[in-house]
Design brief:
single chain, 114 residues, alpha+beta
């Protein structure tokens, strides 16, 4: 069902909203980043570099995203906004895959997909 939803451009909630779909790491304070428009990040799957990017590639900056979302709902402390993924490197993750995600070369996530 997940793959069918993704292939048919169906509801992303079905394509991306499954158990284990949104792993979280410890949060880094905004003060750690001197320039929010130039934060580097990457993702490795099974040791292979799959995604690499920077927040300069976002279509909308953080302030624009927060302004837009807050026009539809009240945002509270600890709310999360998912911005999507870089166009290059997006793909299917399967059970048993080993994922490692970094921000500014600091490994924040390191786990196997269950």
């Amino acid at each position: 069902m997940l793959a069918a939803s993704r292939e048919n451009k169906g509801p992303w909630a079905l394509a991306k909203g499954f158990d284990g779909a949104s792993p979280m790491s410890a949060f880094l304070p905004v003060s750690k980043f001197p320039d929010l428009s130039a934060i580097n990040f990457d993702l490795k799957i099974n040791g292979e570099q799959k995604q690499i990017g920077t927040t300069s590639l976002l279509i909308y900056n953080f302030a624009e995203i927060i302004t837009y979302v807050s026009s539809f709902m009240t945002l509270e402390e600890d709310d999360l906004i998912f911005t999507g993924t870089p166009a290059r490197g997006a793909g299917l993750i399967e059970k048993g895959n080993h994922l490692q995600a970094s921000i500014e070369n600091k490994l924040l996530l390191d786990f196997k997909m269950m």
